[in-house]
Amino acid sequence: MNNSLTSIKLVVAIFVGVMLNPIVSYGVESGASLTLVGGDPNKGVLDPEDHTKIVDPGEIISTKGPLRLDYVPSFDFGKTRVSRKTMAAKADAQLLHQGSGPRANFIQVSDYRNTQAGWSLLVRQEHQFRDDTKANASLKGATLSFDKAWSYSSLGQAYAPSVSKETIVMNNIGDTYPLAEAEPGKGMGTWSISFGASETNPLKQANTLSVKRGKDNKIETNPSFENQKIYENDAIQLTIPASTAIQAGNYSTVLTWIIAELP
């Protein structure tokens, strides 16, 4: 059992949730918002640490409309040896094609409504990590956690959405967890919500990325990203209790990302 490998991967689905309550319009401030943000540039995915750069993170899962998710991440926790002890696997950091180097995993939100009404970003795990090719192969008690959240935009931090300062631990499957919220008058334009940061980030967040090493301490690379070095992100982890009975295999789950208007 100790020599087995279990490959743990995370599959992400996307859903847009919109509050049904009427949106409050702040007419006095609407003109300022339009002047500040301007029209919707719809540039695509931006470097989460430098919004002057358009980047290619690979597969893009997004929604449409003036309030939208431009990008949500998929997570790969690689391979970890089955153990009788509690296991903690770190997510691979985001790589960019021909890009700026590794980045922490991030979500990009754009709000180009003329209401300054605010929004909420939430996430929900639909089922436990499981291997659908095997009977009863589920990582019972395994939990995803998100830490060291921060937001970035070329608009500056005066208009930043609030993010959780505590570690978000998804203890309950099916529950919805808030990740960020822009109160009325904030969150306009395009924002990157990151969990962790690279050592070159502009807001001097603590570096959470480190080179990933595999067998014989060899640095791992990703052939899908021009054989760039793979980095681990300490801010996003999957924890599997020692009591969990594990079969070697490929495990996955589904996350639903929700962008919601504030009432």
Automatic annotation (TrEMBL):
Lineage per the UniProt record: Bacteria, Bacillati, Bacillota, Bacilli, Lactobacillales
Record protein name field = WxL domain-containing protein
Give every WxL domain span: 42-263
- Per the record, the domain of life is Bacteria
